[in-house]
Design a protein that fits this description.
With 350 residues, this protein is an alpha/beta fold. The chain is built from 13 helices and 14 strands.
Length: 350
Amino acid sequence: MRAVIAGTGIHIPPNVVDNHRLSRIMETSDEWIRRRTGIVTRHFADPGQATSDLAVPAAEMAIADAGLRKDEIEYVIFATMTPDHYFPGSGPLLQDKCGLPPVPCLDIRLQCSGFLYGLQLADAMIRAGQYRRILLIGAEVHAGFMPWKSWDVVFGADREVDRQEFEENTRFRDRTVLFGDGAGAFVISAEDDESRGIEAVTVHADGRHARKMWVNAGGSAYRPYFEARMHASGDTVPVVEGREVFKIAVTLMPQSVTEILQANGYGLEDLALLVMHQANLRINEAVQKRLGLPDEKVFNNIQKYGNTTAGTLPIAFHEARRERALAPGSLICFVALGGGLSWGAALYRT
């Protein structure tokens, strides 16, 4: 059996925040953000709206797109780095809110590469004959760790931000301008058709680089897990060593693409589309250049959404399906790098 993407769906919260809005609450500008990241806008969930809440409409869209009923879903894989709660995982919460039967639910905590690991797991389950219809979700609400003191202005309030508030927001501008909220979902179905489906997935991790992207707060390494000083120091905001991550990403991502193609008897000329994790447009442009791919073989949408972490791959592929002419039999490559560090690539035949 082959694992086929039978349906896709996304949900983007309606609160659009452009770079000019952020320049009202911190020392930044539209030009500064665009030049460093390529991001123009991002979307944020409403207060009280959790990651599983964004996942529900994305999941329902994917199930409908696959032509299935909810009671036909047999397994849920939920990739996120921003779960609704410390525990339980967001998978069971999504299952309940979406009205799915009491199927197994598994959360994956591998940040930006989580959805890619989910593809590998879904493919393995289907090849093993364990399940035939799997709901795979990547969703994030990053708004929860934004340390801004000015959310009313972010959402459009017309007031001046005082100097202390402005400086406090600016402390974290190198990271907070990167993120947005959103959800994407695939329905992965078993089909007895060797001409399409997931052909290969390869993933890796190297813990030596774990602290290049991490959160220095929360968990059993601390007594207690959480305390007020973590918020005061800003340790609850993710650390991203931008220059180091850039160098690693522009080496490992093209290497992953080349290796998985060669291992399966393909060359870059066989590739119809490369869908990269949307962390930074400059990284993706450098990867594209190293691989020598033309624009028509690459799809980016970070300009609209920012980095939605585990959500970037399904959101990008969903939009690419609708905006690009992906003929039956097209070879697609997914590639991502994220916390851990973890990275990898997947080949999919439409």
